[in-house]
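Lecture 7, part B: from sequences to assemblies.

Below are the input chains for today's worked example.
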Amino acid sequence: MPVADDADGVDEAVDRSGSAGDLPVNELFCSLQGEGRLAGVPSVFVRTSGCNLRCWFCDSYHTSWEPTGDWYSVEDVVAAVEGYDADHVVLTGGEPLVHEASVDLLDELHDRGYHTTVETNGTIYRDAPIDLASVSPKLASSTPTADRDPKGDGEWADRHEDRRLDVPTLSELVESYETQLKFVVTGPEDVAEIESLVSRVREAADAAVPDDRVLLMPEGQTRDELEATRGVVADLAIEYGYRYTPRLHVDLWNDAPGT
Ligand SMILES: C[S@@+](CC[C@H](N)C(=O)[O-])C[C@H]1O[C@@H](n2cnc3c(N)ncnc32)[C@H](O)[C@@H]1O
Ligand SMILES: Nc1nc2[nH]cc(C(=O)O)c2c(=O)[nH]1
Ligand code: SF4
Ligand SMILES: [Mg+2]
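Predicted structure of the full complex, as structure tokens:
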């Protein structure tokens, strides 16, 4: 069913479509972590629906531009996770931290001994048992201007632009959790903004952000798209001393759902 798309672009439909405390889940599956420092680790993915941003390139269109999903109690999500033989859970979306119930889910998973990674755009802070905050701050190149809007005519551009970077929130995440900053890179023109943002976070945060916690990830939803960006992004990682991350799941399974 569709998840309500309110003015904020996040679901506030708990009282309309689900019980308080439930989570809108777009998909739940077991795969290999495809991105970042834990790439290759078997993990259960819980993909919530609803996002406060609208990246033009979003590879999870049905959690952002046209959010869909079914409402589950935290208890039912935990039971589904326990059905797989994995000890790592990746909570993603959409933007999982728009949902208060994500904290309840993380609490329950932590109590059962799971390692938790949260994939987040870094605009929302929540206090939760997060083992790895996989933060992907959104660059200017993500903004859905009229010429690259996948749905409309640039109606989201201003809201996306206003919200996409929040240095105090990024600093709080870096200070509170083991963090990786994982940038989606479309080309060399993105690097100046990454350099400037990393310095601002280093100045603002009372915690170190070493270069090997700054990851450059090629933009691309398919093998063909990655073919065009990965070489350029690998060269940028070498030139600037940041880490490169592949998109292992795309290499393995292209853009198949549930991978
Ligand atoms: C769908 S997002 C969900 C989590 C959160 N909203 C975020 O953006 O970090 C999951 C990851 O996929 C990345 N991503 C989304 N679309 C992508 C694309 N076309 N190419 C490369 N990475 C992409 C995001 O930057 C993020 O790291
Ligand atoms: N295999 C796999 N690894 C991933 N790492 C982060 C993902 C995400 O969508 O957040 C993702 C995903 O969708 N699939
Ligand atoms: S922040 Fe994440 S889920 Fe939201 S539109 Fe961007 S990539 Fe998609
Ligand atoms: Mg993904």
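Note for the exam: The first strand starts at residue 23 and ends at 32. Keep this in mind when comparing with the next example.
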